[in-house]
Amino acid sequence: MQLQRKQSTGIYETIGTREGYVSVTSPSYRTFTNVKSGSDDMRIYLLYYEDDIDNIVEFYRP
How far is CA 5 from the centre of its chain? Predict the structure, then answer.
């Protein structure tokens, strides 16, 4: 999992990460402290494996 901030060039830069195993009985809790308030475009980029398949999900801050 990566927290990314959009730069003026349009490219997302990773500013925080979380790696490790998660499950229903062992969820992931991660507080990102490098987040400033404002109008910067941000997203969470999540890469996970399920049934030996890579999956990517992106969550954008409005």
Answer: 10
Q: What is the pTM of this model?
A: 0.73
Residue 6 CB-density burial (10 A; 0-12 exposed, 13-18 middle, 19+ buried): middle
Q: d(Cα 62, Cα 48) in Å, to the nearest integer?
A: 23
- 5, two tokens: 């901030």
> pLDDT for 1-49, tens place per residue?
899 999 989 999 998 888 888 788 888 777 887 677 776 889 989 888 8
Q: What residue segments make up the domains of the chain, in order of their start?
A: 2-30+39-60
Q: Which residues of 38-50 are buried (b: 16+ CB within 10 A; e: fewer)?
A: eeeebebeeeeee
